[in-house]
Amino acid sequence: MKNSNSKQEAKFKQMAEGIIKLFESVSQDDFKSWNNINIGMPHNLESGKNYQGFNFIYLLSEMMCNDFTHPVFGTFSQITHKNGSVNKGAKGFPITHYNYIWKYKGKTVEYDYIKSLSQQQNKTVSEFISNNDDISGKGYFKFFTVFHMSQTSLAGEFENSTPSPFSLDALDMEVGALLNNLKRDKGLNLVSKPSNRAYYSPATDQVCVPDFSQFDEKEFYYAVIFHELSHWTGHPDRLNRQFGKNFASEEYAFEELVAELSSLFICSQFGIEKKTDRSAAAYLKNWLTIFKSDINYLIKASKESIKATHFILE
């Protein structure tokens, strides 16, 4: 019988292979398919919240590979709670949640529980944990299985659902405020000018993107900015990542994956229907051989992209 570590590795491998399957399914023509993808961001049936991190990119890849037309997933119990059922023979999708558990005098407390407390209670428990050497703790991954609504008896309720629209005017204000804050508080040097390339220069610590007028759609313009901002977070004075000097190197491939995933996450936070998802997969296909040789690349890159996302948004 497999031990828990082997089972955990098998789940992560399944998730990573789902993302690789998307990379393998796209062609370079998908660089031009900005207007073909409008499926929304994968979110939970019960809470309505978007999935985050590795779960987000994995479920998004499954949505695209399986031509799912809406973005709602739920666990067996959540579906049952909605008076629904899972179709016979349907295979669910694994998602993971990182938790932390502390032990003290035979009793245990989980981080998920601490998060549910009031602010004052949370502070009291956190201080108690910090000030007691007798408390031991460890982190672990919890796995759940979710099903897309098309795999359930609830499918009819979602057939005609469409992603919630967002206001481009409001988007301009929100992204503008974010960029102003980054310039003021974190020293961002962003230049947008007529150009044939977008890049981050570690030597000058400058982000350069083509002029807005060169983009057919506003959402893609912002997605490119977010991609380059993610590279910007890797500076030694920020998150200190290795960029890689050779285009074909593993370090370069890893950094590109981090930046593209981070851009995707930030787009989801702003409610952008990122119409370049499949284009992003085509872009990353250049390094597919490296990803397949070590699926931990995807897991590690997801973690780093979350750090980059938090650095930009917080």
Structure, described:
- This protein is an alpha/beta fold.
- It folds into two domains: 132 residues, no CATH class; 149 residues, no CATH class.
- The strands form two sheets. It has a five-stranded mixed β-sheet with strand order 1-2-5-3-4. A three-stranded mixed β-sheet has the order 6-8-7, covered by helices on one side.
- α2 links the parallel β1 and β2.
- α1 crosses α2.
- The protein is globular, with a radius of gyration of 21 Å.
- The N and C termini lie far apart (44 Å).
- About 3% of the residues have low confidence.
- This is Zincin-like metallopeptidase domain-containing protein.
In short:
By secondary structure, this protein is α/β, with parallel strands linked by helices. 46% of the residues lie in helices and 15% in strands. The chain has two domains: 33-164, no CATH class; 166-314, no CATH class.
Features of the shown structure:
Zincin-like metallopeptidase domain-containing protein; alpha/beta; globular; 2 domains; MPTase-PolyVal; three-stranded mixed β-sheet; 46% helix; ArdC_N; Antirestriction_ArdC
What's the shape? Answer: globular
Largest sheet: 5 strands, mixed
Instruction: Please tell me how large the radius of gyration is.
Output: 21 Å
Helix content: 40-55%
Give the strand tally: 8
What's the number of domains? 2
Strand content: 5-15%
Give the terminus-to-terminus CA distance: 44 Å
Classify the secondary structure makeup into a structural class. alpha/beta
Number of H/I helices: 11
Provide the succession of SSEs.
HEHEHEEHHEHEEEHHHHH
| Overall mean pLDDT | 79
Q: Which regions have little confidence, pLDDT < 50, spanning 5+ residues?
A: 30-38
Q: Main sheet: which strands, in order across? A: 1-2-5-3-4
InterPro entries: Antirestriction_ArdC, ArdC_N, MPTase-PolyVal
Domain N-terminal: 13-116
Protein name: Zincin-like metallopeptidase domain-containing protein
Domain Polyvalent protein metallopeptidase: 184-303
